[in-house]
Write a structure and sequence with these properties.
By secondary structure, the protein is of the alpha+beta class. It has a single domain (about 15-275), classed as 3-Layer(aba) Sandwich (Glutaredoxin). Helix content is about 25%, strand content about 20%. The protein has seven helices and 13 strands. It has helices at about 15-25, 55-60, 90-95, 140-155, 180-185, 200-210, 260-275; strands at about 50, 100-105, 110, 115-120, 125-135, 160-170, 195, 215, 225, 230-235, 240-245, 250, 255. A six-stranded mixed β-sheet has the order 2-11-10-5-6-7, with helices on one face. β5, α4 and β6 form a beta-alpha-beta unit. The termini are far apart. About 45% of the residues are buried. Mean pLDDT is about 75; it is low at about 1-15, about 20-50 and about 55-85.
Amino acid sequence: MSDDTNQEASPQGTLSEADRARAFATSQSTGRASLPPTFFKWAVAVFVVLGGGGALLERVMSGATPTTSPTTLPAPSLTAPVAQNPLTSSLSALLGLKSLGPTPAPALELTDQNGAPWRLGDQRGHVVLVTFYDASCHDICPVLGAEIRGALADLGTSSGAVRVAIVNTDPRATTATKNVAALSVPGLSDRSNVWFLTGSLNQLNDVWSSYGVTINVGAKASQIAHNNVLYFIDPRGRLRSLAVPFANEDRSGAYSLSAAEVARFAKGLANVAGSLIR
């Protein structure tokens, strides 16, 4: 990650420290927020929480008491479970699968990688997988992206009944980009039923809050962490299940998982998605 603290204007699609501070100061979202136990291995004196807490920095710095309100969904744990015996545990255990609802899924209206509007409401009649990682593919993206690719392959001809929406978690890069690394790195660029979605900070923050995703941003814009979740939405637009993707992070910040675990997780995704197809 870069430690650049340049205060000048950033290239289009990114935010400088000054840009980020101004943007966060205008955010109106509120909610519940917490730092993951292993968030940053270095001292961070100032942080901003998005998704779970909106513009907390402005409130903390001003001495005001932060107001809170419940999000549409309870925020899942920021610490992803790691299966002790991943090759022998059940697929449900491997996925950390939890039943939800059925209850109407929160609204999701953003912009896809081609700059076109994408609305969850337009996907009725299809099973939709909604998950979250960053545009640059510097988080769990290589692992989760491979699992999504494997799940679609496992579904075979039934994959046409499934839609996958990957929501951007990087507040530094909010501009829609056709050749976004989030799709190209895990080999999803050629899948017509997979979209990488982004939008303005306020739009993204609304989605993060609604789906229980907390984005933790450190004193520098390069310091970002978020929890990993994947939702299954049925053809009637109702939340049905929640999975918790996971991966191993090395000292350089790269994420990986064994090929066998990736394949089993993909199979689990395919099984759950397939069970919801009409």
